[in-house]
Amino acid sequence: MPGLDDREWMLAARCRGSDTSVFFPQKESGRGPAAGAERDAKKICRTCPVISECRDHALRNAEQHGIWGGMNYSERRAADRARKLGRLSPV
Questions:
Q1: CA dist., res. 19 & res. 76, Å (int)
Q2: Which of 2, 77, 80, 83 would be a feasible disulfide site paired with 88, CB 3.0-4.6 Å?
Q3: Eight-class DSSP state of 17
């Protein structure tokens, strides 16, 4: 949402008020209960009006845990590497 400062976008986040364990599963392994939580989190993210702001925040702040902007830590690291190699626009 254009015009929102660095933290105001959080007020419009679809996850606001949700159980944080969905977005911060105990283990981001791709298997087991954490994988189910990750899928649930990403499903919420897909319909979020501020998914881009959330993802940008996580990349700018090198968030190491949780689902941010529909991405887990490994996905964010890959996106950051691609950005640094000039394959993505800067955050």
A1: 22
A2: 83
A3: T
